[in-house]
Amino acid sequence: MRTPEEPRRILVTGGAGYIGAHVCRALAASGFQPVVFDNLSHGHAWAVRWGPLETGDLIDGARLDEVFRQYRPRAVIHLAGLIAAGDSVIDPGLFYHNNLAATLTLLDAMRSNGVDRLVFSSSAGVYGEPETIPIPESHPFRPVNPYGATKAMVERVLADFATAYGLRSVALRYFNAVGAAPDSGIGEAHPHETHLVPLVLDAAAGIRPFIEIFGSDFSTPDRTCIRDYVHVSDLADAHVLALSRLDQAIGAESFNLGSETGASVRQVIDMAIKVTERPIDARMSPRRAGDPAILVADSSLAKSVLGWRPVYATLEQQISTAWDWHKRYRLVDSRCAAPAS
Ligand code: UFG
C-alpha cells in the first residue's frame, strides 16, 4: 500500500549542496517532500532543512536500495557529483567514478525499484568552446575537460535508457549559478571555493587580499571572460517545473538554464564594488586552463516548454543576494562550518 504522501516524495541526491539545498526549498514550497541523499563530502548537514537527510554514497547500491524501499519516491533529482572543472583535468578518474559510474548505480537502483522519472543536473560544460552565441541546446557537445565530458556522457546514457527502458528524464544544463535565496539560511558555501562571485565577495570582505582575473587577452570588449550568471533560486524553480514536465512527456529532454545575458569578469567585480560599497583589489593573472572566452545561454526552450520565468534577472540582484548571504555566513565563520542564526 502506498501512503498518501509517497507521490509527493522526491529523492534529491546532492541535496545538501549549494544548488541542491535551493532545490529542496523550492520543492517544499510547491508541496513536495524532498528526501536528501548525500555523502556530505562537499555538502552540509545544516543546509538540509526541508526534509530528512539520508547519508550514503551513490556508488553503494545496497544503501540506495534501502533508501528507495524506505521512502518510495516518485522521482529522483540527481545533483550529486563533483563540479570543479579544473580538478577534473588533474584527476579525471575521480570524476568518472563520481559523476558517471555513480550515476549508473543510481539508474540501476531506480530501475529495480520501479522509479522511472529523473531530473539531472547537467552543465554548460557539455558545449566546450561554443561556435555560436547564444548557445542553443542543439549545439554539438565538445567538452574541453573531463567534468564536461561526464555530463555529456550521462546525457547520452539517459537517451539510451529512455529508448530501452522507458526512463523519463529532463537534463538541466546550468550556466553559472550565483546568489542565494533571501532569508533562507542557505547559500554558496563550498569548502574549497573556486567560483568567481564568492571569491570576489571574499576580497570585498577582506577575507582574501585580492581577486585574480584569469586572463585579460580574450576576444571580448574588456578582454576578460564572459559568462551567463543565473540565480540559484531561478535554477531551483526549473527543477519543480521539470517534474511536471516528466508527467507529460516521455523520453529524454534537455534544457539550457541561463539568464541569456553575458557579464565579464571585470563587470562582475565592478558590480560587487557597487553592491558591497567596498574596494576590491583585482590583479591580472594568466588564463585558467579550459576556460572558453564566452558562454551565454539561449534559454528560450526552457521558457516555452517548461514555462520557466527567471525572477532575479539582473547581475545587481544576483550579487546583492549573494552578498547578503556572504555577510551572514563567511564573515562569521570563514571555515564554512554553519551560518549564523
Ligand atoms: N575567474 C577568475 N578568477 C577567479 C575565479 C574565476 O577570473 O578567481 C573567472 C573564470 O576564469 C571564468 C569566470 O570567472 O571566466 C567564472 O568562473 P567560475 O569558476 O566561477 O565558473 P566556471 O565558468 O568555470 O564554471 C561554472 C561551474 C561549472 C559549469 C560552468 C558553466 O562551476 O560547473 O559554470 O558555465 F560547467
How would you sum up this structure, described in words?
The protein is of the alpha/beta class and 341 residues long. The longest helix has 21 residues, at 92-112. It has helices at 18-29, 61-71, 85-90, 92-112, 146-165, 196-205, 232-248, 265-276, 300-306, 315-329; strands at residues 9-13, 33-38, 53-55, 75-78, 117-123, 168-174, 176-178, 211-214, 226-227, 229-231, 252-257, 263-264, 282-285. Residues 83, 85, 123-125, 175-176, 194-196, 199, 211-214, 225, 227, 265, 288, 291, 295 line the site of uridine-5'-diphosphate-4-deoxy-4-fluoro-alpha-D-galactose.
Brief digest:
With 341 residues, the chain is an alpha/beta fold.
The Rg value, from CA coordinates, equals 19 Å
Share of helix among residues? 25-40%
Low-pLDDT parts are none
Structural class: alpha/beta
Query: Looking at the structure, what is the overall shape?
Result: globular
The number of helical runs is: 10
Bound molecules: uridine-5'-diphosphate-4-deoxy-4-fluoro-alpha-D-galactose
What's the main sheet like? Answer: 7 strands, parallel
By DSSP, the count of extended strands is 13
Strand order within the widest beta sheet: 3-2-1-4-5-6-11
Mean pLDDT: 94
Tell me the fraction of residues in β-strands, as a range: 15-25%
Order of helices and strands: EHEEHEHHEHEEHEEEHEEHEHH
Q: Cα distance, first to last residue? A: 41 Å
